[in-house]
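INFO  loader      accepted 1 record
INFO  loader      residues=45
INFO  predictor   begin
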Amino acid sequence: MAGVPRRSKNRRILDLLGNNALDPYWPLHRSFMCIIDFIAGMTDS
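INFO  predictor   done
INFO  writer      dumping tokens
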């Protein structure tokens, strides 16, 4: 994705997160915890 504009990358990330997308008004710690939970859920088998 080297040639993809930054805005397009952001949109792709939000598409992947779906209903788990972050609220821009959340504190940084809460945002990090939500992302970690999302990634951990992706790796569960």
